[in-house]
């Protein structure tokens, strides 16, 4: 109960303080509505536009996000497993992993659109590229930092390279891989929105491009709220999966939190 209180109360107090500051700043004519709309107008815009605009666009962006995450994570796992079984693969792909992260999402999106058209495929590829690097690098780091005592013990038992990987290196790398997944869970929806800036006719990014020139700030804030909830839901899902797949790591996390 004490640990739950420590986990829930600080973010709850932070949200309440931010909401109070927001209400204070938007009352009494302190700010213009087109600069900082009131919470009431933002949630009114959210409710009024959900069924015909925000709702369908949210599902489009969520589908692009989930498909891109699945593709990026699958590619990262493939590279990680290959590098664990064949170290030369990890040495060969490490420079490419760094190079993939140095490409700005806002730049690579139009290139994919030109090559693949205006459908869903370029958006999925942009999200996959954004998700690939954190998972792959964290997985490779976890594989390389496996407990040497366990490795020596397995080798003394004449374990094969594949047995050594699947029984020691890969399980020890899972917490690091999930750390990368937590990063992708918060960044993937943003990458999807960026990808919708070019050649898109639907999605949250498309609505954002329409709302900004019209100074529909309340609608923009509503979009931000939807995007924040989406990222938070993905993060909570990844955290739950981590507790399910890495039960041996949960007690260690609890000790650190306490």
Automatic annotation (TrEMBL):
InterPro entries: MetI-like, MetI-like_sf
Membrane topology, as annotated: Multi-pass membrane protein
Pfam families: BPD_transp_1
Broad class of the protein's primary localization: membrane
GO cellular component: plasma membrane
UniProt xrefs under CDD domains: TM_PBP2
Protein name: ABC transporter permease
Similarity comment: Belongs to the binding-protein-dependent transport system permease family.
Transmembrane segments: 66-89, 96-118, 124-143, 219-241
Keywords: Cell membrane, Membrane, Transmembrane, Transmembrane helix, Transport
PROSITE patterns (UniProt xref): ABC_TM1
Domain annotation ABC transmembrane type-1: ranges: 62-238
Keyword Transferase: no
Signal sequence range: none
Keyword check for Ribonucleoprotein: no
Lineage: Bacteria, Bacillati, Actinomycetota, Actinomycetes, Mycobacteriales
SUPFAM superfamilies with a match to the protein in the record: MetI-like
GO term, biological process aspect, one: transmembrane transport
Compartments, as annotated in UniProt: Cell membrane
